[in-house]
Amino acid sequence: MTKKAKLDAVSAAAVDLAAEALVDVTESGQVGAHVRAEATGERLVTHVFESTIEGYAGWYWIVTLARAPRAKQPTVCETALVPGDDALLAPEWKPWAERLRPSDVGADDVLPYREFDERLEQGFEQTDAAEEDRAVQWELGLGRPRVLSREGREEAATRWHGSDFGPKPLSNRRRRGTVQAHCSSCGFLSLLSGSLRQEFGVCTNEWSPADGRVVSLQYGCGAHSETRSGDESTGEELPPAVLDDNEVDFVDRFEEKSIIDEKLLQKEIEKAAKADAAKADAAKAEDGKRDGAEADGAKADQADDSTRDDVANEDQA
């Protein structure tokens, strides 16, 4: 059993030294409070600080200090930014071959060549005459009262020949949508029995759109067992993954809730509307009173003018 390392008191107390070490590798405002100091070896202490970098929730800054025997001050070994238990991390990376599913592959997509495919084994391009005779003899009988007639085979062959998995033209230009190899040379083809085996077989490749279908020997797709040509390599070297630290993706981790009471807001709106209507009515009433007073004043002025005219006429008489 490995003995647990004892926490060095001198290095554990050097919190200021650890904080100063982070100044050289961080920007202002990226280091939070000191969390803890833990022993990682003999006279080896790691100080943990909170990280306040945007987009790095749950991450921590660490500074490892080491002290030589009988030394009074520790020295800085390394600094790093590490994720905690609740850190927001990217999903585990999976190779392209593990992410791909049969439903993602179309008839025009060419799959990479697999030199060691557990679904295939070495075969022979030709068989001897005895094997051909044995295949014909195996078709006869089988305990069935009736077997497919010549007309039935011809109808089936015509129907399959005109289906989506009938013959396709071969092309050497390697453009998308063209066929570079037919099913006749594919290891996933299982030939039919009898005379139909000369033209048709059943596809057994789950990555092919023709999986489980009767296909013409002149049909072809990108899931062919021999997709590699003579001048192609067995695989493609991918560049190393690049981590972009310059861009920050903001993620809403909490549901936003409105702090406004909608019912109270509606009541306030109605109350304000009523107040505005009352002010408008009062203004109309005030305008009516003002117009009435002006009319009465005009009548009084006319009466005074008439009185003065009468007095003037009497004086002249």
UniProtKB/TrEMBL annotation:
Residues 153-173, 224-243, 275-317 are annotated as: Disordered. Pfam families: DUF3027. Residues 153-162, 275-311 have a biased composition (Basic and acidic residues). This is DUF3027 domain-containing protein.
